[in-house]
């Protein structure tokens, strides 16, 4: 028999949970209220829905306490009253008092949790910095932080000074597949890794048949937030919790709460990334927000039995980003060459700036189509990381284009300095004329 679901309407924001989740904390207001012997003290506004005129945004953290037994802190500073956020230390404390949650027990380690959060956030920023530099082909990162500037600089200075060895060990292990060295943070050649590495999510099986639009939809109600999908999307990952649950052979084990709707008392914000995995077959990395951190996301991956290795995913995702940029750049050059072929233009030279601007270096004012070339083709070279990708992989791009357009005897010219890249492409139409029938 399915467990009773409770809807908590907190200032207009609805949270859905199980009665057992609330009664797991029997000394709190909600834990006491939903004990069977206390039915008389509950005031339902609509069936199993109960209204509390409290702060709905802050209650997200109260609800996570009931689900995990831990007070999970937001990434933003709780004590800053001027951030324009409804979530402050003072308001969290007020809500804990109202819901009769023992602050002395929870807050006894609050200071150490805040310090650990600060360290986690700093390391997370270092990881993002490394990925950003790796993707832009910068193989050395120099950390230089003073102790007399902004408060954040001082904090990072203290962390780096006192935890140099721990941070080094963590980063070297996390980026082991990129051969990271901790001498001013030195990373091996992205091009070499790019050509040798496997596809990013090769360790994950993803087999999906074309979706039958008449197939019944599945509604996953995660803590009150609903996600809609098809059964085949979930069963495409048969070794995961949802993939197993929605196999036809396990139909008798499922207990919908409303026809095709299934409730899970889990973190609704983090489930966005779980759902993206089922839809794409890839694990998506997040940038830590106020409501979802890496640690919380790892907990959800574990709950839904999705294989997750941060080191593998973070390294291979960086490599995939480079590959995607490389393939995008290839397509842009192919489009440019095809455009030139369409107008029998046998030579073009373009200048690409580090800031993303692109122009024809040697314009041909007789070409009436040149304005369209400037308008539709050239801007595509200005995408993020295009300059760095071209500067580091021009040899591979040259070889690819030479093979693909072999009928045109393509000649590739390349030169660069710190801020500009010059590319010239020469084409011969002799073979086309000669072999025309």
Spell out the blueprint of helices and strands:
Blueprint: E1 5-10, E2 13-18, H1 19-23, H2 29-33, E3 44-46, E4 49-52, H3 59-68, H4 89-98, H5 103-107, H6 110-135, H7 151-162, H8 164-174, H9 190-196, E5 217-222, E6 225-230, H10 231-235, H11 241-245, E7 261-264, H12 271-280, H13 294-303, H14 310-342, E8 347-353, E9 358-360, H15 370-377, H16 386-404, E10 411-416, E11 420-426, H17 430-434
Parallel strand pairs: 1-4, 5-7
Antiparallel strand pairs: 1-2, 3-4, 5-6, 8-9, 8-11, 10-11
Helix pairs in contact: 6-14, 14-16
InterPro entries: BTB/POZ_dom (IPR000210), SKP1/BTB/POZ_sf (IPR011333), T1-type_BTB (IPR003131)
Domain BTB: 216-287
Pfam families: BTB_2
Protein model, in words:
By secondary structure, the protein is an alpha+beta fold. It has helices at 19-23, 29-33, 59-68, 89-98, 103-107, 110-135, 151-162, 164-174, 190-196, 231-235, 241-245, 271-280, 294-303, 310-342, 370-377, 386-404, 430-434; strands at residues 5-10, 13-18, 44-46, 49-52, 217-222, 225-230, 261-264, 347-353, 358-360, 411-416, 420-426. It folds into four domains: 5-108, Potassium Channel Kv1.1, Chain A (2-Layer Sandwich); 112-188; 217-306, Potassium Channel Kv1.1, Chain A, CATH 3.30.710.10; 315-434, no CATH class. A four-stranded mixed beta sheet has the order 2-1-4-3. A four-stranded antiparallel beta sheet has the order 9-8-11-10, with helices on one face. Strands 6-5-7 form a three-stranded mixed beta sheet. A hairpin with a 2-residue loop joins strand 5 (217-222) and strand 6 (225-230). Helix 6 packs parallel to helix 14 (310-342) and helix 14 (310-342) packs across helix 16 (386-404).
